[in-house]
Amino acid sequence: MGFLNNIFNKNSEENTSTFWKNINSVEDLNNAIAESKTKKVIIFKHSTRCHISKMVLSRFEKDAENFEGDAEFYFLDLIAHRDVSNIIAENLDVTHQSPQLLILENGVVVKHASHNDASFNLVE
């Protein structure tokens, strides 16, 4: 997908991958939550400073390559946008973790996992 090559060498806002939609603001987060009212939304919260987060992201992207379901994938660089991560924790009633995978449907978190449990198995 090329995303990993971009994310570790550039600012996440420069990501040109078509796989992820970036969450760079509260407005982006609100759009993702609104979109979850019509389809499944997956948010991956990633720490660019954490080797576990890098490993989990790599595994997740590899597993997602063959996904044929109807879902939108959102990416949050929580180092660059910690304020948005804090709002996620507060408004969606989940404890902040990294890496963290959130599955939203109808505006609420229906599943979430962190660290090595944040795998693509949660999506399916």
Automatic annotation (TrEMBL):
This is Bacillithiol system protein YtxJ. The lineage of its organism: Bacteria, Pseudomonadati, Bacteroidota, Flavobacteriia, Flavobacteriales. It comes from the Bacteria. It comes from Frigoriflavimonas asaccharolytica.
